[in-house]
Design goal:
Blueprint: H1 2-10, H2 20-33, E1 42-43, H3 45-52, H4 56-68, E2 72-75, E3 79-82, H5 87-110, H6 117-132, H7 136-153, H8 159-173, H9 185-201, H10 204-216
Antiparallel strand pairs: 1-3, 2-3
Helix pairs in contact: 2-4, 3-4, 5-7, 5-8, 5-9, 5-10, 6-7, 6-9, 7-8
Amino acid sequence: MTGLNDLLEQSKGMASGGLLSDRVYRLLRSAILSGEMVPDQRIVESDIAKRLGISQAPVREAVKRLVHESLVTHVPRLGSRVASISVEQAEQARELRGLLEEYAARAAAKRRAEGYVDQLRAVVDDMRRADRQDDPTSFRDSDMAFHRLVCQASGDHLLPRLWEVMEPSLWSLRVISNPFYTGGLNTLVAEHARLVEMLADGRVEEAALAFRLHATGEAQIGSKPPPEDDEQLPMS
């Protein structure tokens, strides 16, 4: 819990700059997504409030939001913990995400992502900026925003709603990026940039396959050489 302790010390005395609950939410969410808070770790609201020098109410509201995103689980009388997952759950989520993204990419490419290409490129720029600033939380936020936009670019009014239902589970299951992937985030930026161009060029089947393999982690995108046997592929 050292990482969280450090964050709490740095954030002690929260006062101005937006709603306290929003600031606590961002603090805890960042700690979870960065791995500073580990699966099944207890979240003691009273302790966090005391360390931050605030009342317990904003912490309680922040935790409720994290429960809604499936990043935290809450059991009455037992308290809250960082969500934990099984290998089987992660695999199921990857497969489901792969099917959804294949469908979304095929539909978006048929329309050449009309009205969304500039937005997608801008999100890739956000990812590149987060990489330069060594900000993995912002990188993951932009990563998720990218794939959310692809669903919108499909022109299918149901896809964004399906993604909205699935997105909290994706955060919880950490399948936005492969936790075993040791490559740099700049590689992921380049992959997302290539994905945008596939959509913009209308390469329908190529885009559909690339998005599915990208989502499930089965293969790299483009013409890069295959990874070594012990290298895991990025999942974002």
